[in-house]
Design brief:
The chain is an alpha+beta fold. The chain has two helices and 14 strands. It starts with a strand and ends in a 33-residue tail after the last strand. About 10% of the residues have low confidence.
Length: about 290
């Protein structure tokens, strides 16, 4: 029987493209060994061996959830590592496999934030029976088909092996992280999307600004060419006409248009220049109806 610790360079730790919290971190287990932790949905551990029996031990706790065990390309089996306390347990135990090279894969469930903690791997020999069914100290669970179809070795051909080989000198802080190349690719993809969105927003802003400037130019041209409107000026108020005062003038029959006219008697008939005029007849009067006195 041989034990392979979690920091063994022969173990591959990786995460699928697009996984959240797609990192693995190494810490000491307090018993002379190590624990590799992840909270990435779909992140997995792979280990290849030649033999008939294997046991992978993990850590369960209140923040741990579903995980699957799969040998080579067989159907993954799901178990639930959610527990009330921090305990070690045999997560995937397989005996009686064919005595040849195999690959065991343990995958975290498709629920972001739930932890998967790999402790160590124990290899032993048993009678070869071609068995590919795992047992576990944790209860089995039934998961949706969509999850089972995207776990296990289907990611192996698309993920580059992460650099998880760690010596004892590397374990100076339990919060150290090992980042996979798939995580870097996901970050690059997000940055690309952000860049495209920024360029699109800049183009829309430029187009709107240009349209606004054209509208302002048109409005100024229209205001310059528009005729000046006629503004009616109300007439100035006039003072009311003054009332004319009538002056009473005494009647004078001998005055015409303000000029006094004195009546004269006509010259006597038959007289010549230098002769004495005859006295007028008493019957003559300048105004009919009046007699000379």
């Amino acid at each position: 029987m041989s034990i392979v610790f979690a920091n063994d360079p022969a173990i591959t730790y990786a995460c699928p493209p697009g996984a959240l919290q797609a990192t693995w971190s190494l810490r000491a287990d307090g018993q002379g060994g190590y624990i590799m932790d992840t909270r990435g949905n779909g992140c997995f551990m792979q280990y290849s061996f030649t033999g008939t029996s294997i046991n992978v031990q993990i850590v369960s706790n209140f923040d741990h959830g579903w995980y699957s065990c799969m040998l080579d390309s067989s159907t993954p089996q799901w178990f639930n590592a959610n527990a009330g306390t921090d305990t070690f347990g045999a997560a995937c135990t397989l005996t009686g496999a064919s005595n040849e090279k195999h690959t065991v894969t343990i995958t975290n469930g498709d629920q972001p934030g739930w932890a998967l903690s790999i402790n160590n791997i124990t290899l032993s020999s048993s009678i070869s029976q071609g068995v590919t069914t795992f047992t576990s100290v944790y209860p089995p669970v039934q998961v949706p088909v969509a999850i089972t179809a995207t776990t296990g070795s289907s990611y192996a051909s698309t993920v580059t092996t992460t650099a998880t080989s760690t010596s004892n000198a590397d374990i100076t802080n339990s919060s150290d992280h090992k980042v996979s190349t798939s995580a870097l690719g996901a970050v690059a993809g997000v940055l690309g999307v952000i860049t495209l969105m920024a360029l699109g927003a800049a183009f829309l802003f430029w187009r709107r600004d240009r349209h606004s400037r054209e509208e302002l130019k048109w409005a100024l041209e229209m205001s310059e060419n528009r005729p000046t409107p006629f503004i009616a000026v109300p007439p100035k108020p006039q003072s009311p006409p003054q009332e004319q005062q009538l002056v009473s003038v005494p009647y004078n029959p001998w005055e015409i248009a303000g000029v006094s006219v004195q009546p004269q008697a006509p010259p006597a008939l038959g007289t010549s220049e230098g002769s004495v005029a005859a006295e007028p007849s008493p019957a003559y009067s300048a105004f009919p109806g009046q007699k000379r006195s």
